[in-house]
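Worked Example 4.2. Consider the chain below.
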Amino acid sequence: MKILICIDDTDNLDSIGTGQLLEDLCAELENRGLAKGGFVTRHQLLIHEDIEYTSHNSSMCCEAETERFEEAVSAAREYLAKHSAEGSDPGICVLRLDTAADIEKLREFGRRAQTEVLKKSEAYETAALFPGSLCLSEHGGTGDGVIGALAGVGLRLTGEDGRVKGKIRPRKEDEVLTAADFCSVYSVEQIVTEDGELLSGDAVLHFSEPTKAVFRDNKVTLTVLRGDGFWIPRPHRGNKK
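Applying the procedure from the previous section yields the following structure tokens:
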């Protein structure tokens, strides 16, 4: 079965980031034969003076495959409790995609978390609408991370939100390749222009600077800029998250 795992508020200024912790958590689940995780997406939540966060107030989510749902949830909770940073307020949300119904309520919660200051009680009230399909829990501090964890699942479910964790770097200086080859080499599912137009597989890309993929149309998506007879992956020079 497919599940979504999302965590939030797990770090401090000196610890590894929440995205790295989720990747490590998924590696632990795979090592124990409980689940196999995929790529991680970062979902930006509201920045507000009434919300405590470490640096960017973003939650991290990934899809995983498991045949041992309850064991995977238990192991993920244990890992989060053990490895979250001192002073953090970690929360985790795990959703079964095969049994969850009326997921628009989760999408709505995620979108609200980008524009409103939400309470922990609201997260638990929403989670209660999905008995047997959604597990939401806190593991230290105030536990307010459950808000972002639930919101991250909701935003991932929109299929239209989030950056894929990690930069995509060229294998060599001034790499030239087709769009189809780029997708194959760099695990991208589609390439679009700034206007949202889908690029054909034979379009030529000149790849010289690190870039980042985003999550659009439920796919790992690269955006390109127009060059002189070719296309350029949009450069990314932001933070390390």
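The longest strand covers residues 36-44. The chain has a mean pLDDT of 93. Compare this with Example 4.1 before moving on.
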